[in-house]
Amino acid sequence: MVCRRPGRCCISCTLQLHQYLAPGRAANSRKTVVVSGIPDGIVKDDVMADILMIHFQKTKNRGGDVKDVVYPTTIKGVAYIIFEDQEVTENVLQKDEHRLEDKRLGRYYPLKISLYSEHVFTCVSSVLDLSIFGDKYILEDLVQELKKTIPALSFSPLQSNGQISVQGSFPAIKTLKDNLLLKANSLSGKGKRGERKPDQRPNIRTQKCGLFVEPNNTFVHNVNRKEQVVVLDTDIYYYMKHFLYKESLAKYNVVSHGVTDGEITTVYLENARASSDSRELERAKEGIEDLSAKLHCRLRKERFSFDGNTRPERQKYKQACESIKSRFPKVLVIPYDTHIDVIGSSSETYEFTQEVNKTVKSHFQKRFRR
Domains plus CATH for the chain? Predict the structure, then answer.
């Protein structure tokens, strides 16, 4: 069942996958992986499906017999690979890095592989500091409670300093953050021995296996006013704010305030007026989270790293990005001192980076000839 439908992102692809898994759903889902980071628009869909099948059959990629490839799907850049053997699935997941390489693609593309789930498309690893709960909770019991509440997460052994590593989907990590936020708020305003100051907050340091790397996040919450909290990837927040402000933050009758800490941004939503319906806050939160989930699967980030570059070379890269970005109206360019991030669809970020590299290379070749 290789899905070959050039130019389409069709709902039936996902429905077919669910129907296919249904007879032995648990067993079949353990033989299925979700592949993201597939370049969009570089080759025809049927060609890409063949390239994916070849990649996951190769021994060097720890692959084996592939039963089916479902591509394209309803999400650009995502495919489902169903293996004959569960052992092959496990081997593929254990490989540190997958690079999709084929002469028809022009270059290699890093892929992110995760075990199939209806709701899981990204893998997130977090380090939690639970030490601030030490006076109120027995930390071992707190961890057991979290395991039961959010079974989709995997927890490492609790360390003596109160830190613990957690891994799971981005939505599951967000649920964990909301859970800890409520517990932190319940401790607000108390003093010693099970008491704490209002500014003490659980700290979570998050690293994503995929588009965005090394985000950090701390919780802040004002319990004296009604508000909703939305935790977003900072890159998605910037993209949403830059291109989709009317569809997201400005769509509802609420006031929003974003607090960025590393590559995680916490957005606080309050009613614009005291008399506003509290349900508007809930609708705003749900709307923003839905849009974030769509962008999380759709967007890709490329990076120009300045490691080893001279100051003139760095400046030229910045100038090239500025001169080219008007031709890519849906690509977000974020310059930093050490690198430049380029965020957009797979095809557009690829074309953008190619143009920038070509411009910079041409500039220095001309200088060399002189």
Answer: 11-115 (3.30.70.330), 122-224 (3.30.70.250), 226-298 (3.30.70), 300-369 (3.30.70.1130)
